[in-house]
Structures are given as C-alpha cells and as structure tokens.
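look at this stuff:

>
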Amino acid sequence: MAIIPDDSPVRLHFLLPGDIVSILISLIALPAIAIFIVARWPKEGTRWTVATFLCLLCYATDMIFITTVTMLVHTRATLTPELCDSMMIICVILHNIAKATELAFLIERAYIITWPVKSRHETPEYILSTVGIFVPYVTVTAVAIAYRIAYVLDTEVCIIGMRRLTLMPMLAVETAAQLYLTLRFLQPLLRVHQDGSGLLSPLRKVVIRTSIGCAITMLLDVAVKVSLTLFNGEPSWLCYLTCKAEAFLAASILFWITKPALPNEGMTNGEQELGVGFEGSVSDSVITSSELAETCRQNFVKRVLSFPNAYETKIPRTHSVAPKS
C-alpha cells in the first residue's frame, strides 16, 4: 500500500516547480563535479594510481548519470510505454554503476591504508571484499531491473520504480558495504600514533571527515530508497530529481573526505600531496627493527593524510633487519 495516494497531483502531473528545481540541480552539479575532477587530477610529474583513477571515475560516472537523466526527463519527446520502460532501466543501471564505482574506491582505500606487501590478486581480503560486495550487488541490481515498475498514466506522466521486495535487499547491500569498508579504513587509523592525548590532530581530522561522510552517504541512500516506497511507482521527474541530488551530494562528500590533510609544502621529491611512498625512505643498508618501525609509522601517517593519490609500495625483500643491540 502506497503512503501517497495514486491520485496525488505530485504523481499525476509534471509540476513546474519540480522542473525548475531539477534543472537548477543539474546546472549546479555538473560544473561542480567538473571542478572536482580538475582538483583531483594528478599534477604534472606525478604518476597515476589505482586510487586516483577510481576517485576520478566516481566523478565521471556521477556526471554521466546526471547528464543522461537530465536529458531524458527534460526532452519533450512523445512518451510511450517503451520509452518509459527504457527510462527506468537506464536510471537503475547508471545509478548503480556510479554506486559500484564508489564501492570500488572504498575497497581500494581499505587496501591502500593497510600498507600492503602483496598485490591485489594475492591479497585474500581484497579478493573477498570485491567478490563479497559486487556479486550480491550485481544480483540485486538484476533483480531490481527484472521486477521494475514502468508505465504511462493517462496524464502522460511516466511512472517508474522498484518493488519493495527488491528495494530492501539493495539498500541492505549498499549500507552494509559502505559501513564495513569505512570501518576497515578507520581501524588502522585508530591504532596508529596514539598516546595519552589520543590521535594526532591531522589524523583526527581524517577520522572525523570519514565518519561524517559515511553517515551522510548512508542517510542519502536511505532517503532515496524510502522516497521510492512512498509511491506505488514514482513519477520519473521526481525519481530523477532525488537521484540527481543524491549523486551530486555523494560526489561532494567524496571530494571532502579525500581532501589532503597535509599542505603541499609538506611534501618532498616533487610528489603530489597525495602520493608519498616508501621508496627513498629506507636505504639498502642494514637497519634496526626500531628504525624500520619508525620509518613505517612516519610513512603510514603521510599516506593516510595524503589519500587517495598514495600508492601501494612494498618493503624491499632484500632488506635485512638487524636485531636491536
């Protein structure tokens, strides 16, 4: 049973205020995301990383989604059941591709923060996280498309949506994945550089931004899914409006939580503020375990404060560690 009745004007007509708000969101979101891409684009002399690529891909998929649904909802073409059905399928696919890209970035972030000594395909946690998240997500996406709602009213309004049977599993997968990957990222931060006064100030900022960003992202996801349950099928213009707003806010949150916590002048060797590696920090000579531990701690902190352009580096296997005298 829908909470909002089927004869509600919101459902029966394409309302002018909604049209104006939808266009304004697009006019604000698209230039803003373009700025995000430019700001996160690797500077000259720095190398690309998987994390950087995925971060930029998140912005690109959000931009494609917002552009596509804006064109679909504001193109005054003859509305047919086939077009309405296509609008629903395109919305679900593009929206979930953008969400999947964000999850892939979070998986990479959790991998990088552990200072990996093995490649991704040799890291069980990375493989399990990828398979354990994307297999269920692809499955619920396919089910949502199969059991979609899409039809045209007599007032020439396209009604689209998903049945509650598919909404709840999709929301559960997205929320569980977001929460797990955020906690996995925060775990090393809460264990490093702690003393009687707690975390270092820059690390504390990273923890706070990540926690707030995760909470807002999950609330946005819940809000969009709840809005779909209010109707027995939602008018396409309203569905697109809420999804565009969610995509823009998600991109803004991603830009905020990946903001470097170290100033540019704090970096050396011409590396971008987000890319401090292990090379050059440890020589090929014999070092003590305490010296190696201190070097790892210093580089770990720099890596955390400079994500997402930090890249995974391996401790050279030729190094020998002398016992502490």
In short: The chain has a mean pLDDT of 76.
